[in-house]
Design goal:
- The structure is a homodimer.
- Chain A is α/β, with parallel strands linked by helices.
- Chain A has three domains: about 45 residues, no CATH class; about 130 residues, 3-Layer(aba) Sandwich (Rossmann fold), CATH 3.40.50.2300; about 130 residues, Rossmann fold (3-Layer(aba) Sandwich), CATH 3.40.50.2300.
- Helix content of chain A is about 45%, strand content about 15%.
- Chain A has a six-stranded parallel beta sheet with strand order 2-1-3-4-5-11, with helices on both faces. A four-stranded parallel beta sheet of chain A has the order 7-6-8-9. Chain A has a two-stranded antiparallel ribbon with strand order 10-12.
- In chain A, strand 6, helix 9 and strand 7 form a beta-alpha-beta unit.
- The radius of gyration of chain A is 26 Å and the shape is elongated.
- Chain A starts with 6 loop residues before the first helix and ends in a 13-residue tail after the last strand.
- The structure holds a DNA duplex.
Chain lengths: ~350, ~350
Amino acid sequence: MGRRPTLKTIAEEVGVTVSAVSLALRDDPRISVATRERIQRSAATLGYVYNRHAAGLRRGDSGTVAVCLNDLSNPFFTEFLGHMEARFREAGRMMLFGHANESLDVQAQFIRQMVEHGAAGLILIPVAGTRRDDIAGERARHLENFPVVLISRDVEQTPYDRVINDDALGVQLLFDHLYGLGHRRFVWLGGGKETSTARDRERAFIEAMRAAGLSVDDETIHHGPTSLAFGDTMLERLLGTGEPPTAVLCFSDVIAFGVLAACYRHGLRPGVDLSVTGFDDMGAAAYSSPALTSVRVRTDRIGQRASELLGARMAGDRRPPERVVMPPELVVRDSSGPAPVTRR
Amino acid sequence: MGRRPTLKTIAEEVGVTVSAVSLALRDDPRISVATRERIQRSAATLGYVYNRHAAGLRRGDSGTVAVCLNDLSNPFFTEFLGHMEARFREAGRMMLFGHANESLDVQAQFIRQMVEHGAAGLILIPVAGTRRDDIAGERARHLENFPVVLISRDVEQTPYDRVINDDALGVQLLFDHLYGLGHRRFVWLGGGKETSTARDRERAFIEAMRAAGLSVDDETIHHGPTSLAFGDTMLERLLGTGEPPTAVLCFSDVIAFGVLAACYRHGLRPGVDLSVTGFDDMGAAAYSSPALTSVRVRTDRIGQRASELLGARMAGDRRPPERVVMPPELVVRDSSGPAPVTRR
DNA sequence: TTACGCAATTCAATCGATTGAACCAATGCG
DNA sequence: CGCATTGGTTCAATCGATTGAATTGCGTAA
């Protein structure tokens, strides 16, 4: 069955040189239409397959782009993946995919490997706790201008483009909505200190509370993983306290879904007995029971902008790094409602 | 800032030849320990980065594996992605990722590109409607032994390994569970004719109905997309019929979640007024309101087995293709319960 | 001393595509 | 008719790592 045909195979068949074939297959106008067609026809019948290793070796670009996520179980992140894969495929680039799973080591390994593969750029949702050197260190000093775009999470003092959501605005919108409905006893569920997202949302929450003249204490803020289980067990715990909150703001829709599950088991009606809000507005938020009030993070726009920025960098754009902050939108559904009248 | 160092750079620094460096960096015993260490130290300080294009060109293997999904919005599929990425990374292989989004064209484009990239193998969840030639055609005749493993969905008469769930068994388990609870008026929601999964589940449902002496007519089976919206609107429609079902079996958890949402709005208590079951048992099934009875498809085992098979093929295994059928498990939760007493 | 074996290293060809320079023939123009 | 142009194609070097064969140097057995 012979080996895979190469430019040489075609060249011999058609009776021209390898150079002519190379040029013809890329529609270079230097080759006459007649021979170009003969060459292309021959390539087709021989079943020629372009060898990107050879091309990449010579040209130094493999036509790939690397993308690294760290939480596949959170549909919010896979939304990014879909948006970006589509855009890169349109641009004729393949995607090298990595899943760091919140591990700095895995992230570092991925970055090294994707450089070995000659990826032209990297889009990264940095692992929690990533610092500047975790990204630059692996890429080494020979890659000073290597295009990197961070999305969703910010890492300060990095020389990279970043496209993130306006988390402060999102929390503000949620708080104002709930405050306007009469709520005064708030709880914040989820997040922590490790990601910019968690920090920003929590800070905004605290500021909103202060601005409204409400106090923030140990009972107000509860850190934890972004999981259904966390939301579920935390609500259980809150119900045990003397004065349960009337509004529960969750760091992520995922946590809010867990809260809704616990509410259901306890016969609590979210939106009536208790208001629950999420964050991200993933697709499922419109179909939870009840439908979840959330903040729509524009993953499509963020993904698009990130692809654009990366594209520009790969094309040689050397302007100083940009920090794009994408405004989100409040989406009011049934899980939030007027504060219940205080019984006392 | 100089170019990226190559073997040559190191060779000159250390005072040996390129060959020696190449061998030393791969720990070849032909190079003495002393020089090997000198070489490796030099590589480290120079910040040498392995060039896989050059190596791949010479050796013909790029160290990548391609994986193509087609529905990122369904967490069921991203579970596979996570399992497999982890296994390939451990094996030192990067993953070329594609998202066919149920488009045959995109899938074909992906397969062509990944061959160009010299991927060593392919794991594919074939797009609905894929036929034998859609896979083989793009790979062309020079790749007869190219390793391909299909997961989740079967394509008949293909010369590839396949790892799929035992869908017939899963449906049987669900049906028996519901029948045992006294249900007699069933409805099947979702699927269609395009994927083996949909066909197998539906066929098993029909057979179970017949075996139980129940008739299947136009009102029993409703095809549709695997989306929350489909489940939601279909339940609305069913409620409008004269004699609504007491048990709704959904092709996928995703559809079931949509059904639960509609139930909630109508004040129907799933598990009491109506039994609802899903399929796949994705993570969220345990946290819906109420928690969803489903069939756990072992994405972990399927992903693992698929990786193993692909690994064996890449290592040269030429045994005839295998068809692995993984048994699922019934998971009973709160969305299913005894059939309500018929009011008539 | 010669020859041999062995370890360590080098030589040199190779993988397949790209590209700037060179070449050739035909045409146009003065 | 000679010279410049230009369209079409070829030449030849190049990218960086790999590898089977060849070479070198050295100790040791004959």
